[in-house]
Amino acid sequence: MILIEGAVKRFGANTVLDGVDLRIAPGEVVSILGASGSGKSTLIRCINGLEKLDAGTISVDGHRVDDPKQLQLARRCSGTVFQLFNLYPHMTALQNITLAPVEVLKVPRRQAEEEAHALLASVGLAARADAYPAQLSGGQRQRVGICRALAMKPRYLLLDEVTSALDPEMTAEVLAILAKLAAEGTTMLFVTHEIEFARQISNRVVFLDQGRLLADLPTARFFAADGGLAQPRIAQFLTKISKS
């Protein structure tokens, strides 16, 4: 379980997370919605320890992220996919995927490569194992990024606006892969502006507004007129997004 209790994060005088409480259980797919600047991406970065909380705690399967001795154990439980791919440009797709399993998990290289080939095949990139990032489309690079995260066999997959830098066709490619992972039972915490996709694959929807958790509801309830939509701020956000 990912357990977030009273999470507070400030950048100078700006409070980005303001007392957030959240639990993500194994097997859940939870979408995080909210306007730009509401704290969504910061929350993901705090879960994987890239940002340090000013108050509150985060633990991943009991490993405290704020404890340097437990941080690496927490990170091994989760994999993160960022919006800008972050692939190593001098490495092939195969090398990008096998690097961490070999260096961190000490998986034998041959085994790591076999598993990487299987991952690439599962996302339709079996023929692109030896391609460098510059030789791949944006959608293909993002799919490699997902494979790289999955290669560490994480219990939780953290996805931070993974389609925001993609055109509609590439977005559809990546969302299809994520829908497949969700159907297979992969636990995901998904920061997105893809409202219909969130509606289709999520067990729950979380809404952040100015750093505060405004709603944490089952998906059907979130989109119901007497549920999340009954809150003016959520209704305003969804109306604006639907028109954009």
Can you walk me through this structure?
The protein is of the alpha/beta class. The protein has a single domain, classed as P-loop containing nucleotide triphosphate hydrolases (Rossmann fold, 3-Layer(aba) Sandwich). Helix content is 39%, strand content 25%. The chain is built from 9 helices and 10 strands. The chain has a 6-stranded mixed sheet with strand order 6-7-8-3-9-10, sandwiched between helices. The protein has a 4-stranded antiparallel sheet with strand order 2-1-4-5, covered by helices on one side. Helix 3 crosses helix 4. The longest helix has 16 residues. It is globular, with a radius of gyration of 18 Å.
Overall form? globular
CATH topology: Rossmann fold
Mean pLDDT: 91
Task: Kindly estimate the percentage of residues that lie in beta strands according to DSSP.
Answer: 25-35%
Please bin the fraction of helical residues: 25-40%
Low-confidence stretches: none
Q: How far is the first residue's CA from the last residue's CA? A: 35 Å
Q: Structurally, how many domains make up the residues? A: 1
Give the strand tally.
10
Q: What would CATH call the homologous superfamily?
A: P-loop containing nucleotide triphosphate hydrolases
From the alpha-carbon coordinates, what is the Rg to the nearest angstrom? 18 Å
Can you list the strand order of the major beta sheet? 6-7-8-3-9-10
Main β-sheet description:
6 strands, mixed
CATH architecture: 3-Layer(aba) Sandwich
Q: Strand pairing plus helix content: what structural class?
A: alpha/beta
CATH class equals: Alpha Beta
Number of helices: 9
Task: Please trace the helix and strand order, writing H or E for each element.
Answer: EEEHEEHEHHHEHEHEEHH
